[in-house]
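Table S2 (text version). Query chain:
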Amino acid sequence: MPILALDTVSKSFGALKVADQVSFALEKGEALGVIGPNGAGKSTLFNLITGNFHADSGTIAFDGADITRQAPMARCLAGIGRTFQIPQPFEKLTVLENLLVAAAFGSRRAESDVGGYCADILVATGLIGRANQLAGSLGLLQRKRLELARALATDPRLLLLDEIAGGLTEGECYELVETIRAVHRRGVSIIWVEHVLHALTSVVDRLLVLHFGKVIGIGQPGDIMESRAVREIYLGIEV
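Corresponding structure-token output:
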């Protein structure tokens, strides 16, 4: 049974259709990359999965349960975590406090277990040395790491990453990719929206291509990147 399955999911805002009959399944432990030009519906896809938007039609199932109408909090507690393209920490809280809030309210862990769990995440994401630093004073790479750490603090089985490598230098991107690889090796299923393609394809098992809210391709990264549709629509190359 896949951990996530979307069946003909559609969403419109007035006359604008932002998700058009989207269907795909994600296997447990799989990493799926999502690419497409700006306005393709990538962020909408995440918002539909997390419950920030409700689908007009179609169904979304998580680990076999229908979550199409569930509230975002219920989906988070069920095991769906996400990052945002622009990091959104609690700037006046410390790095550790940011994680404690996420773990206390976004996971089902016992209160007695939260502190040690968050400390382990700080180590895994390279933030242990900044545990007592105010989140608002962090640079971009550390904010990206904190965004990932906060998502992990909710103890997700499915992790949605929204352009987490954007704006980083090559070296910073490499460091972040290694952290994401480590998360994936632990068995966490991942859907990653990203424009930094070399980072994305170094981690994911498959690529899904969106264009005007429609899935126009899904498959092995090499096959997808060489396809006529991707080169014409995503890369802007006439074939």
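Notes on Table S2: The beta strands are 4-13, 16-26, 31-35, 57-62, 65-66, 80-82, 158-162, 189-193, 206-211, 214-219. The CA atoms of residues 29 and 41 lie 24 Å apart.
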